[in-house]
Every structure is written in structure tokens, then in C-alpha cells.
Design a protein that fits this description.
Oligomer: heterotrimer
Number of domains of chain B: 1
Number of strands of chain C: 0
Shape of chain C: elongated
Largest interface: A-C, 31 and 36 residues
Mean pLDDT of chain B: 83
Low-confidence stretches of chain B: none
Helix content of chain B: 40-55%
Helix content of chain C: over 70%
Distance between the termini of chain B: 67 Å
Radius of gyration of chain B: 21 Å
Shape of chain B: globular
Radius of gyration of chain C: 21 Å
Distance between the termini of chain C: 40 Å
Strand order of the largest sheet of chain B: 6-7-8-3-9-10
Number of helices of chain B: 11
Largest sheet of chain C: none
Order of helices and strands of chain C: HHHHHHHHH
CATH topology of chain B: Rossmann fold
Structural class of chain B: alpha/beta
Number of helices of chain C: 9
CATH superfamily of chain B: P-loop containing nucleotide triphosphate hydrolases
Low-confidence stretches of chain C: none
Number of domains of chain C: 1
Order of helices and strands of chain B: HEEEHEEHEHHHEHEHEEHHH
Strand content of chain C: under 5%
């Protein structure tokens, strides 16, 4: 085969190959947060079990950001969760953050419920009103062994 | 002797090569004067191919020295080897043409890979080599589409396109009929004079070699037992030489004996 | 008995070392090789354009099957919306790089081993050396360099087509909303997954093409056969060992990166 024809074919292959690579890395790999500036806020949770870096952040069920990092606060051993949120979305200072689950056994995500305050959260600001993840095991435990707990509860106040 | 050494392109001294217990070269020596056509004769298995492959650097000799153009060739020196390879070409018994490249691409390959010539210069020189070997109409054919003789010429075109000073031929006439053998030797002699390279041919075809060569050497049991001109060879009474050159007579007498035996046999029945 | 084990171990270690030297030598030979780019383009054609149909077909069917099987499993838990997650994670993390590499071994790797084996048999490789051309640089280096680029691209194409196939069976055949599918795909894949996927693809490319070239190049050293049989034996060994090394390397990379 002639070199020019060969180069043409290989060139075409490389083009669609690069397109596929870009599709994977940019469209899928970096999440759905392209085309927009973001800012960082923090939220303190008593329990961030099941939440991962990369989990979604939703406002009214709409994805607006991702969890960037999770660490333990050295002072009070609570979970400090860093959230990266789209810059276009201004959140009032009394926004409430809660960790929820999609479906019964689905992924955990952070749901933000904006309040009614006139001032807005700045970059690096901290959300204090939080609701920790529901510990599914203890919940199931309560339901399954509810009678045992109830019996205990009833006995305790007796004396 | 001094002038003689000056004129030697290749000088081999005491080449020794052993494969396991089998000694193939037992200290062979050979002188190849510049611009000559030297033939190394010998029976199959006498070590001819190994001698050539030592020269082409495919096999490394255990002992012995090779000097090229007055300088000893150090096989451990990569630069010296590269220099030797640039000035020397090797023609394989099997031609070893690249079967997925066209005739033109085959000839162009050594230039493309070892020289800094431009594409245009390479094309010109390759076409010139093909033209000189009367292959220009076949430049876009693949080796498998060429006849045996054309393949041989194509291999020669590829060997000379780099303008080497020394061309090594490994059994160029093996398996060819007498007419083609003549043609191949005629081709080697013709182009050797036309291009002025020095040719070292390894063969067991005595008749053609004696007619075409300037010098003849006979290799037997890993040693060079005769070196000289074809006339000296014919006149020599060295036992191995006689044995080799009289092989046709021996065949005649053997055959005669067989025929007599057959005749006797048929008479019996 | 003990000696047999010992000698076998030694020969395996020896061959492994030989293979490593072969690969290293092939990369070193790239320096000073003339017109390398043209041979890389040809190798890109062999590994890229020629193998594209099989990559696309296998990718599509892999996606279709994943979509179908995944849908029925997830349907039991009422979480069909996770179909995209299932298909995309399986494809990106494991199936994409592994299956694409296996397909490329079957098509490009076997062809390479056979081609080099025949070139060795007909003294074409020896001829290159006598011309002063490095046979490594001429025959092996361009293929290795091309594999480093082509394998990740083929893998990306495989995954893209596979995701589309998953959507096809999920939404068109089984009635899942395409939007649900694609959004769960986008949510599932992290940049870490994609990086791992391409690391795997490039590693598989390097290993399999080097292994196929190694066996073809050394067809004359085949102990069990000579001539055409040696070529076929080398090609078989190249394909078998490449397939094994893909899965073994996959396990090692996965356990190190996750």
C-alpha cells in the first residue's frame, strides 16, 4: 500500500481514537461538572459513613457538585466533608446539609436544603446545620429486634 | 610482499570455529586482493558457509583475525563493525529478499536505513541499480512474482546499491541447472568488473569457478589446502585438489562400474 | 524430580530475563533509527485500522450483553436506574482493557509473531543485520511504540461502543429511559477509573506486542520444531502467553491501583 494512503487511514484512526479517549476522560472521567467555575464549602457531620470523595451533591434533587474530600476533625472527631459546588449557585448561610441514600442500598449523596438567609456562604465557609447518614444496620437492627429494645425501655423506668 | 599486502582488501588468518564437538574451521586463512574475483571451493560441509558467515558477522569465530583494507577488524568495536558492514555486502544463498516489499523497496531499504540520502536521491539510486541489472520494468513487482534468475539479480542489485567494496556470495549457484549456473557466474564476473567491487564467492561448482575467477582456494576439513590461480589449480597435484577436480572422472568410473554390474546382472537373468 | 523442577524454574527465569533484555534492546534501538516514523505509521495501521472492525463488533456485543444481563439482575431489586453504573464500571475497570487487548493479540499479535517467524526462517532478519540495519529497530521498535498509543485508543473505542451497546439493550429493548442510563454512567465513572483503564491498556499493549515479537523473532530457537512448524509453534506460544499475561497483569495492576 502507498505510504500516503497508509498515512490517511492511520490519521483517520488516530482522530477517532483521540475522540474516544477525550470522551472517556473529559465527559465521563471528570464528572458532569465541566463548563463552570466552582467553589468549596465545608460541612461538619457527626457521621459520614458511606460517603466517598466523588459522591454527588444535590439541591432539590439536581446535581450541583461533588464531595471533594472527607477527613476527621482533630478537635472533636467529627467528619469534615469538603464540597465543591458550582459557582453560579449561591447558597444561604443557613443551608442545611444531610447525607442521604439513593434507594435502599444505593450510593450516598449530600443533599443541600437552602435556607432563607440574606447572606450567602463564601468559599471555605462551613455549614453547621447537618444531618448525618442514617446507619442502615442500626435501623434494621431496631426494626428487627425492636421488641427487645422496647422491653428494655419499658423495664428501665420502672424502678 | 609489502606491495602485495597493500593490495589486499581482505586478509583472513587462522580462523577457528567450533560448534560443540564439531570443529568446522580449523585455522583457515585466505587473502583476497582488491578488485579480484576469488572463489572458495569445497565440498558441502567443508566449512565454506561458516567462513562467509564469520565475515558477514552473523557467526562469531572462536579464534583468528580478519583484517579489512589493512586494518584488523575488531568484532567488539561497534563502530568498526558498522564501518565494515557499510563497505561490505552479503548475498544470501536464499537471496533473503523482503517478500512483503516490492523490488524497488527492496533495493531502497539499505539506503533508507543506513544513509542520510534524501528520498529523491534514494529513488534515483535504486532505479539506477535496477536499471543496471535490467530489472527496471519489474520495479513494482514483489519478489515472489519474479523468476529465480531475476530474484538473484534483484538480490545483487540490493547488495551493490550501497556501492560496497566487497561483496560476499554464498553459494550463488546452488540448486541451479548448468545453464543458469553459467549465467550467474557470468553475471557476477560482468558486474564485478562493471562496478569494480571485490567479490568473494563460495561455491562447489568447480567448472564455472575455474573459468570465471581470478583466484581459487580450496577448503577442506576446516583448512585452506590450496590457494592460487585457476591455472595453478588445474596443474596442482595436491591430493585433495585432485580428488575434488577429478570427482567427475570418479563419477564416470563409478557409473561405469555400476553399468557393468547391471550388465552382468541382466546377463545373469 | 527436584532437578527437573530446578531446571524448569531456571529456564523460565532465563527466558523471562531474555525477554526483558529483548524489550529493553528494542527501545534502545529507537535511537538513531532512520525513518522510524514511517514504520510506526505502518504498525499503527496493522494494530489500529485493521483491528478496528473486530474491536467495534466485540465492544458492541459486550455492551449489549452487559445491558441485558444487568437489567434482569437489577430489575429484581427495582434498581434498573443503576444499569449505567454497572455497564460503565465493568467496561472501564476490567472488560474494556482486557477484552480489547485479547482481541488485539488475536489479530495483530498473532500476525506479528507469524510474520517475524517467517522473516527469521527466510533469513530476512539475518539479511538486515548484514546490511548494518538493526533488526530490532527495524522490525520491533515501531510496533512497540505504536502499541503504546494504539492500545489505549482501541480500548477507548471499545468502551465507547460498549456503553452505547448497553444503552441500546437497556433503553431500546427493555424500556429504560436513555437519560437515566447516561446520567448513571456519568455519575459512576471517576477520573481515577479512566486513568487506571488507560494504564492497563498501555501496559497490555507493551507486554503483548513485545511477547509476540519476541517469540516470532526467536522462532529459530524453538526447540520442539523447525521450519514452518517452528513458526506455527512460536505463534501459538506467543498468543497463549500473551493472553495469560494480559489477565495476570490485569490482576496485578488492579490490586496495586485500587
Amino acid at each position: 500500500m502507498k505510504q500516503t494512503k497508509l498515512e490517511l487511514y492511520v490519521g483517520a484512526f488516530v482522530l477517532i481514537g483521540i475522540a474516544a479517549v477525550i470522551y472517556l476522560t473529559v465527559k465521563l472521567g471528570s464528572g458532569s461538572l465541566i463548563g463552570g467555575d466552582t467553589y468549596v464549602i465545608e460541612a461538619r457531620f457527626a457521621n459520614a459513613g458511606g460517603l466517598n470523595a466523588g459522591s454527588s451533591v444535590l439541591v432539590a434533587g439536581v446535581p450541583v457538585g461533588r464531595v471533594e474530600a472527607i477527613r476527621v476533625d482533630n478537635t472533636d472527631y467529627s467528619a469534615m466533608v469538603t464540597l465543591r459546588v458550582l459557582a453560579g449557585l449561591k447558597l444561604p448561610t443557613d443551608t442545611m446539609a444531610s447525607i442521604k441514600t439513593t434507594g435502599l442500598i444505593g450510593d450516598k449523596y449530600v443533599a443541600l436544603a437552602p435556607g432563607a438567609d440574606e447572606t450567602y456562604l463564601e468559599t471555605g465557609a462551613r455549614i453547621t446545620m447537618t444531618e448525618s447518614s442514617v446507619d442502615l444496620e442500626s435501623l434494621i437492627g431496631k426494626m428487627a429486634f425492636g421488641s427487645v429494645d422496647k422491653a428494655k425501655d419499658e423495664k428501665e423506668p420502672a424502678p | 610482499m609489502g606491495a602485495d599486502t597493500q593490495n589486499l582488501l581482505l586478509h583472513i588468518e587462522g580462523l577457528y570455529k567450533r560448534f560443540d564437538e564439531n570443529v568446522v574451521l580449523a585455522g583457515a586463512s585466505l587473502d583476497v586482493p582488491r578488485g579480484s574475483l576469488v572463489t572458495v571451493l569445497g565440498r558441502s560441509g567443508a566449512g565454506k558457509s561458516v567462513l562467509l558467515k564469520c565475515l558477514a558477522d552473523v557467526i562469531r569465530p572462536d579464534q583468528g583475525s580478519i583484517s579489512f583494507d589493512g586494518h584488523p577488524l575488531n568484532m567488539d568495536d561497534a563502530a568498526a563493525r558498522a564501518e565494515f558492514r557499510r563497505r561490505c555486502s552479503f548475498l544470501f544463498q536464499s537471496n533473503a529478499l523482503f517478500d512483503s516489499l516490492t523490488a524497488l523497496e527492496n533495493v531502497a531499504l539499505p539506503l533508507e536505513q543506513t544513509t542520510d540520502l534524501t528520498d529523491k536521491e534514494i529513488r534515483e539510486r535504486s532505479l539506477e541499480a535496477l536499471h543496471q541489472l535490467e530489472l527496471d520494468v519489474h520495479q513494482d513487482r514483489y519478489p515472489s512474482q519474479l523468476s529465480g534468475g531475476m530474484q538473484k539479480r534483484l538480490a545483487l542489485a540490493r547488495a551493490i546499491v550501497t556501492r560496497p567494496e566487497l561483496v560476499l556470495f554464498d553459494e550463488p549457484t546452488a540448486g541451479l541447472d548448468p545453464l543458469r549456473r553459467n549465467a550467474v557466474f557470468a553475471m557476477i564476473a560482468k558486474y564485478q568488473r562493471q562496478f569494480g567491487f571485490t567479490a568473494l564467492v563460495v561455491t562447489h561448482d568447480l567448472t564455472e569457478a575455474l573459468i570465471a575467477s581470478d583466484r581459487v582456494a580450496l577448503l577442506d576439513k576446516g583448512l585452506m589446502c590450496f590457494e592460487g590461480t585457476p591455472a595453478e589449480f588445474s596443474a596442482s597435484n595436491h591430493p585433495v585438489v585432485c580428488n575434488f577436480s577429478d570427482s567427475a572422472d570418479t563419477l564416470g568410473s563409478t557409473l561405469a562400474a555400476i553399468r557393468r554390474g547391471e550388465a552382468l546382472h541382466s546377463e545373469d537373468s | 524430580m527436584l532437578r527437573t523442577v530446578g531446571s524448569h524454574t531456571l529456564s523460565i527465569v532465563h527466558e523471562f530475563g531474555d525477554f526483558a533484555l529483548f524489550t529493553g534492546h528494542s527501545f534502545r534501538s529507537a535511537i538513531g533509527s532512520r525513518r522510524l516514523w514511517r514504520r510506526i505509521v505502518r504498525a499503527g495501521f496493522e494494530q489500529g485500522v485493521r483491528c478496528l472492525p473486530v474491536i467495534l463488533i466485540v465492544g458492541l456485543f459486550t455492551g449489549l450483553v452487559l445491558g441485558l444481563q444487568g437489567y434482569y439482575v437489577l430489575n429484581r431489586f427495582g434498581s434498573e436506574s443503576l444499569l449505567g453504573t454497572l455497564v460503565s464500571l465493568s467496561l472501564v475497570r476490567e472488560l474494556g482493557p482486557v477484552l480489547a487487548a485479547l482481541m488485539l493479540v488475536g489479530q495483530a499479535g498473532s500476525a506479528l509473531a507469524a510474520e517475524l517467524g517467517i522473516q527469521r526462517n527466510t533469513e530476512q532478519i539475518a539479511a538486515l543485520e548484514t546490511m548494518g540495519v538493526s533488526s530490532h529497530a527495524y522490525l520491533v521498535t515501531p510496533r512497540l511504540l505504536a502499541a503504546l498509543v494504539v492500545y489505549p485508543m482501541q480500548t477507548a473505542l471499545f468502551i465507547t461502543v460498549g456503553l452505547w451497546g448497553g444503552n441500546l439493550s437497556g433503553s431500546l429493548l427493555l424500556g429504560l429511559e436513555p437519560g437515566v442510563y447516561w446520567s448513571s454512567v456519568e455519575r459512576a465513572i471517576e477520573s481515577q477509573d479512566v486513568r487506571e483503564c488507560f494504564t492497563k491498556a498501555a501496559t497490555f499493549g507493551l507486554l503483548t506486542i513485545a511477547l509476540c515479537a519476541y517469540h516470532g523473532f526467536n522462532a529459530h530457537r524453538c526447540r520442539s520444531a523447525t521450519g514452518a512448524r517452528a513458526v506455527s509453534a512460536s505463534t501459538t506460544r506467543a498468543v497463549v502467553q500473551s493472553s495469560i499475561i494480559v489477565l495476570a497483569a490485569d490482576y496485578i495492576i488492579t490490586s496495586f491501583l485500587v
